[in-house]
Amino acid sequence: MTRNNMSSAHQGVCWNNGRQAKQVELKDLRREVAGFARIMREYDIVEMELETEGLVIKLRSESKSSPPRSVEVGVEAISEDSHITITAPMVGTFYKAPAPDEAPYVRVGDTVLPGQTLCIIEAMKTMNEIQSEVRGRIVEILTENAEPVEYGQPLFILETL
Prior knowledge:
The protein is mainly β. It has 2 domains: 8-60, no CATH class; 69-160, CATH 2.40.50.100. It is 11% helix and 42% strand. The protein has one helix spanning 26-42, and strands spanning 13-16, 19-23, 47-52, 55-60, 69-71, 74-77, 83-87, 92-95, 111-112, 117-123, 126-131, 136-141, 147-149, 154-160. The N and C termini lie far apart (65 Å).
């Protein structure tokens, strides 16, 4: 029986290079993986590989101390004048500042330069810096702090300079 033709009776079988490696209970495997993930978070471990009886499990996470990633943003013109809308490049949580007790990256009326961070969108526990692609002035911030955003959702209106 190949991997693609497994019947429901074989759901608890783990495969290693196409060969049956070990009979396991899926709930036990989930519990073990969750325990290792908890250890990784607690000790800030980025990658872990476990091997036992022919079964190999690789876990990888973003380090808590890793710097935010830079992400390209969508820009669309909203009229024939010099205003553009900056949209969310992903689904996540919108943050105006790098930390709750710090000043926001930008405020209405601020002038921004290409490459300047406007906000952070947290997606899957990764902080992604959203940067301006144009020189402009912030006309409006369309999202509240710590609110969920959808892909393509307008975040800022900028007047290009």
